[in-house]
Fold these 2 entries.
Entry 1:
Amino acid sequence: MTTRERGGLLRSRDFRLLWTGETTSVLGSSIAVVALPLVAVVTLQASTFAVGLLTAVAWLPWLLIGLPAGAWVDRRPKRPVMLICNTLSMLVFLSVPIAAWCGLLTMTQLIVVALAGGVAKVFFNVAYRAYLPSLVDKEQLQEANEKLQGSESAAQIGGPGLAGLLAQGFGAVSGVLADAVSFGISVLCLRSIRHREPERPAKTRSRLRDEMREGLAFVVHDRYLLVLAIFGAVSNVALMGYQSIEVVFLARDLGAGEATVGLVLALVGAGGVAGAALSGKLAARIGTARAFVLSEAFGALMMLLGPLAQGGWGLVFFVAAGFALSAGVVGSNVLNATFKQRYVPASMFGRVTASMSVLSFGAIALGGLLGGILGETAGVRQTLGLMAGLEVVAVFALLFTPIGRCRDFPAERV
């Protein structure tokens, strides 16, 4: 009897541990996403550019080490890599509240911490995405991704609100401490997983550079993966250019207090739960590729409402835009992740994922930096509008690609 017949993957002890650890870690990270900018803005009185830079450096490692990280992870068992990464993240984020309590915290340290956490995240994400297909059956990947993305989105609802409450009650650095604790819980969960990955077939090990080239070639010569990588890059510039300055927009332009900022971002995150829950049903009705495009289009068009927000009840525009955007992005992420886990050979998954992520996640660093620069020079509201417009253009262009012309993603490479 399978886990699905007994009531789903949450009846599986090992999946439940992975799910608990990852959800807890995401809750901590969603607190830190608000807490780190709040520390910069409220405690260190940082400029808009510095806040954008703080976001950018967290994603910069994808550009610097993404390709070798993917090839390196493909050579090794994934769970030990994940354990090391989360342990490192726990230690570096723990340094922020310690430095603050000693009166030694600086903007330089925040940037170094964000960079170190970003390095750990590169290796963790590549290993995590490659680990899941070995933990669950192929036909359970859609269910697994829905549960993981849904719970992660639920954690992101509570995270910003907790960040605001912690900042108001105990200071902004308390949110960073919560993030460090969440990584510690994730380490304990990962250590308790009994499943061990199957041994890789013995073969002559090639040079790391050659394996990196194999991963790149696989993506470049595949019309679906290449489109997803390019679209992801353009979309992430727009999304991160928007998100990197939304705390500045809410706190400075609209005059929202710390608790209100947390509440607004929590409501925004609720869209992700809806997106994860509905993605499978939408895909079954209209096709996986069409559901992916529709999810992205819905989020992009609603994103245009964000820059129209005002103080007080005018925040409804920002919440509506963010809720829809979160639903669309998370829903499309579930479909995207499931497609790649079924489509890409397990022996190359790390390299292929890293090759795509170098482009798409590396663009997040550019988006964060661009959002900070434009927010400082052209204005925060104007920059939000520009980034929303870029997202709409990116989704419109997707309609003219092989993904936009098919009903379903292919089950295997032809």
Note: The longest helix spans residues 13-43.
Entry 2:
Amino acid sequence: MPRSVNSVASRARRKKIFKHAKGYFGRRKNVWTVAKNAVEKAMQYAYRGRKEKKRNFRALWITRINAGARQHGMSYSQFMGALKKNNIELNRKVLADLAMNHPEAFQAVVDQVK
């Protein structure tokens, strides 16, 4: 009985990896083992990067809120504590946007919690 290999599935699997490796430099784009390793590593970086993006944006928002609060004589922690105490439920993304793009609205929020 002849040996049965599923070349259709094998080729499809390789094509998928080579498609992901398009644009890579040197052998990373056209040699199976090198491309497979490069694409696997890239996917690890992408997975990790999706988590890091959330951290980086939160840090950016906190920095912007802190800068806006300090212009009105409060620190970030004092401001956030006062928000919680006054039951104002604005998230950091919205507060950062107010502090950057709508300073008069941010001033109103600060005046309300003072």
Note: The chain has one domain: 8-113.
